Amino acid sequence: MTDSQTKPIQQTGTVDPARAFHTWPGTAPAATAESAPPATRRGFRRWLVVTAGIVVLGIFLVPFLVFAVVYKQARTNEARPVGAIVVLGAAQFNGVPSQVFQARLDTAFDLYQQGYAPTIVVTGGRILGDQYTEAEAGKNYLVDRGVPADAILMENVSHNTAASFEGVRRILKPRGVESLLVVSDGFHLYRSKMLAENAGFEAFGYAAENSPIRDGSGTELRYMVRETLGVLAWKLHIQR
Q1: Which long-range contacts (CB under 8 A, 24 or more apart) does 125-133 make?
Q2: Is residue 125 within 8 Å of residue 159, measured between CB atoms?
């Protein structure tokens, strides 16, 4: 066989990386996700499942814990001497407080008579078509019961609890009031205290006595669930 019959071997100038690792002494290709040992992959999956479980548990556990503190506050009355008693508004009909509102006002009247505070603040604005604001209806009711008109202050423009306490802050801070006894239905107290503290007050709660929304009733349970969602929304800055 002559040289002319022999084909030269062509050099491409490229080297297969996998073969290079095997041919170079003391080297080996880096491990990849596909080539990771089975035990490592099992460990990663285990931690992934644990993390997902913790997240899911938190999603269910946090609302339950908030509901628990809402319930506890509803059953905890904190009457003590303060700068002012604040009555959260509720429905009124042509100047006549609803049963829920009346129960709150009667409770505030009793606390005032017992000397817990020298001032009562009634809150709540009016909705379209109303002749009176909730605050006006509340003040008139308390005056009829014998509270001096000059001992009652009105926050009469708000339409929600957060706005009520912003109004209370504008009224009471210039008077040097630093502490409040908040009167509302029990289910409403935890969020009310939270908003009062956000407005710069030291706040305590007292549940309205003889409210038509009875302790342990289905209506109270529905309101507690709503309050739980309201607290979570506030904490997450979903609403203000």
Answers
A1: 125/89, 125/156, 125/157, 125/158, 125/159, 126/156, 127/159, 130/92, 130/94, 131/94, 131/95, 132/92, 132/94, 132/95, 133/157
A2: yes
Collect all residues with Cβ–Cβ distance below 8 Å to 228 and sequence separation of at least 6.
Answer: 63, 66, 67, 70
The fold of 73-235 is Rossmann fold (3.40.50)
Q: Tokens 């997240």 belong to which residue?
A: 55
In Å, the largest CA–CA distance within the chain is 131
List the chain domain ranges: 73-235
Residues 145-202 have pLDDT tens digits of 999 999 999 999 999 999 999 999 999 999 999 999 999 999 999 999 999 999 999 9
